[in-house]
Specification:
Elements lengths: L1 H8 L2 E7 L6 H13 L3 E6 L4 H5 L4 H4 L2 E5 L21 H7 L8 E6 L1 H5 L4 H17 L4 E9 L5 H10 L2 E7 L12 E8 L5 E11 L3 E7 L34 H9 L8 H8 L30
Parallel strand pairs: 1-5, 1-6, 2-3, 2-4, 4-5
Antiparallel strand pairs: 6-7, 7-8, 8-9
Helix pairs in contact: 5-7, 7-8
């Protein structure tokens, strides 16, 4: 499913959530690469890395199709650069004003990263801009096909992440593959993808992938439901036998057949015998009565039962 989304199946807000254990900027660049190859107009607003670092790894053909808006060099607007993008410019109207229609086709907008904005602007204000941007662009005669954003999950608490997940049409949470051996950019990674379709149906898949040179996505298949990786399977496709954790213990965790029979023959304390059940179910022959014997200090007056009260 992730490959289909990168190839153009993703629409609306696409949220890529990474962490210290598994970075997500290369997957963000994979969306940029695929959009540029489809001759879409790509606008990148970069806050965390400079333009040269973000464009590293792209071919000259792809780089020529990217319109870069640098918010890294002068984030507060003190230098007054004419083509810079300052923190105070983050609003729907200002963003639409930067999206000059380079082609009549759809536009892909990339925010790198949303965490940089959330740590410096009010959370509610940033969340309001995200759905307003496509509507403002439509009113201006532009079509934003997708808004791809990167968020660092380690920097935000659970409530904020849940709010962002609710706004997104596609959410990709990245995890490192625990069984991979290779290191570097082509190391396998795990993507937990949620795709909310227009009809309200939500698709969820957990799959492995790797990124080839040029940020080309290569799918490695969906993760098995039994949680066993492909490297742990034998040649016939079955899971390889694992070591018994109770094999070399100094005490026995299992019962023999005789011990099991002896255990099953012991009556449980809450189980009654047939004789006791029949005695409890028998109807009593006489009704119960209450007998009261007054103490010597009791002063019982039948005519005035409350005589002993100090009223």
């Amino acid at each position: 499913m992730l490959g289909e989304l990168v190839a153009g199946g993703a629409e609306g807000l696409v949220l890529i959530q990474d962490s210290v254990a598994c970075e997500g900027r290369t997957l963000l660049k994979s969306f940029v690469e695929a959009s540029a190859q489809r001759d879409e107009s790509v606008h990148v607003f970069s806050f965390e890395v400079p333009e040269e670092e973000f464009k590293a790894g792209f071919s000259a053909e792809v780089t020529s199709r990217i319109q870069f808006h640098d918010a890294f060099r002068d984030p507060l607007g003190w230098a007054g650069e004419p083509h810079g993008f300052a923190l105070g410019d983050f609003c729907a109207s200002e963003l639409v004003g930067r999206l000059t229609p380079g082609s009549p086709g759809p536009v892909t907008v990339v925010l790198d990263s949303l965490s940089w904005l959330l740590l410096r602007l009010p959370f509610a204000g940033v969340c309001q801009v995200l759905p307003q941007l496509p509507r403002r662009a439509k009113a201006a005669g532009l079509k934003i096909a997708r808004l791809v954003t990167l968020v660092h999950g380690d920097l935000h608490h659970f409530g904020q992440l849940e709010t962002l997940h609710a706004l997104a049409r596609v959410m990709v949470a990245l995890e490192p593959a625990p069984w991979n051996v290779s290191q570097g950019d082509e190391a396998p990674r795990v993507a937990v993808t949620f795709h909310r379709k227009k009809g309200g149906k939500v698709l969820r898949k957990k799959e492995r992938f790797t990124l080839l040179p040029g940020f080309l996505l290569k799918q490695l298949g969906e993760l098995p439901r039994d949680g066993v990786s492909e490297g742990d399977r034998s040649e016939d496709g079955k899971a390889s036998p694992t070591a018994d954790p109770a094999a070399n213990l100094t005490f026995n965790l299992r019962l023999s057949e005789a011990e099991r029979r002896a255990k099953e023959s012991v009556p449980l304390p809450y189980q009654f015998s047939d004789k006791k059940k029949s005695s409890l179910l028998q109807t009593p022959t006489s009704q119960g009565k209450i007998y009261y014997e007054p103490d010597a200090a009791d002063d019982i007056d039948e005519e005035d039962p409350d005589d002993d009260l100090d009223v």
